[in-house]
Design brief:
single chain, alpha+beta, Hypothetical Cytosolic Protein, Chain: A, 4-stranded mixed sheet, two-stranded antiparallel sheet, 34% helix, YlxR-like_sf
């Protein structure tokens, strides 16, 4: 029997697209996203979606804002800023909304 935990992530990604694949059935429960701060894969529901509006990066989780998004854990926002992952995801002119930074840091506590 196929065991999805014994396969490399790259192989899982390749198998994900095959209809009827055991991996496709195994992972079909919740969409997975990568946190730009800690670079770990987690359920989409456990992460906050950041979206660029003009030159400001805002929370686009609920309601889901259109456009290019990046996902971050509430406690990883400071790490994402230190690693320049926010700038890498949204471009050089993007600045984090101060209210978003305060809100996400408060949620992490």
């Amino acid at each position: 029997m196929f065991d999805a935990t014994s396969v490399s992530p790259r192989a899982v990604t390749r198998l994900w697209t095959r209809p009827g694949s055991p991996v496709n059935c195994y992972l079909a429960g919740m969409p997975q996203r990568t946190c730009i701060g800690c670079r770990t894969v987690d359920d989409q529901a456990a992460l906050r979606r950041l979206v660029r509006r003009g030159d400001v990066v805002v929370d686009g989780t609920k309601p889901r804002a259109p456009g290019r998004g990046a996902y971050v854990h509430a406690g990883c926002l400071g790490l994402a800023v230190r690693r320049r992952a926010v700038t890498r995801a949204f471009g050089a002119g993007a600045e984090l909304d101060p209210s978003l930074s305060a809100e996400l840091e408060r949620v992490a506590e």
